[in-house]
Amino acid sequence: MASANRRISEAIDAVKQENYLLGLTMFLDVYGNEGDPPLRAANAASGLSWFGLCLALVQRQFKAAIELARRAIELEFYNGDHYANLTRIYLTAGNRKKALETAEAGLKLMPEHEGLLAARRAVGVRARPPLPFLDRGNAINVSLGQVRHAKKVAEWERRRK
């Protein structure tokens, strides 16, 4: 039991250091597979969202990753890391709307959590369409939005020099 706790902690540390492949390997060693990981160890629930994050980033198994992170939130809703990890999984999967919803839900419970704040910043904020009466995907809005973005980048570059 203590050995499993230690291995889960080491796997989480590997993921925090952005060594996702090592983390995934360690989680697979502890949990077996993503299908139905055992939760015998005391911190086994904490490892679920980190395991899911590794699955999303390394193997692009988004469905399993999302299920693991959601399960972690069900078991430990008070842990902001789980919300941050699920946000990152959704972003990696290309689901910005769900990423934003997850980050906001976590921040309601833990408004000062650094990992959640960083995840929320990673989601970003979309500007209003240049012509709000047209659909966001309208070619005119897309073109004007690209020009506006290029102008902001140029201004930022100019200030940086």
Keywords:
Serine Threonine Protein Phosphatase 5, Tetratricopeptide repeat; 2 domains; 161 residues; mainly alpha
Describe the structure.
With 161 residues, this protein is an all-alpha fold. The protein has two domains: 2-125, Serine Threonine Protein Phosphatase 5, Tetratricopeptide repeat, CATH 1.25.40.10; 127-161. It is built from eight helices and no strands. It has helices spanning 2-16, 20-31, 44-59, 62-75, 80-93, 96-109, 114-123, 139-160. Helix 1 (2-16) packs antiparallel against helix 2 (20-31), helix 3 (44-59) runs antiparallel to helix 4 (62-75) and helix 6 packs antiparallel against helix 7. The chain is elongated and about 60 Å long. The termini are far apart.
Taking the alpha carbons of the first and last residues, their distance comes to 56 Å
Q: Given the helix and strand composition, which structural class is it?
A: mainly alpha
Bulk shape? elongated
User: Largest sheet, if any?
Assistant: none
Write the layout of secondary structure elements.
Blueprint: H1 2-16, H2 20-31, H3 44-59, H4 62-75, H5 80-93, H6 96-109, H7 114-123, H8 139-160
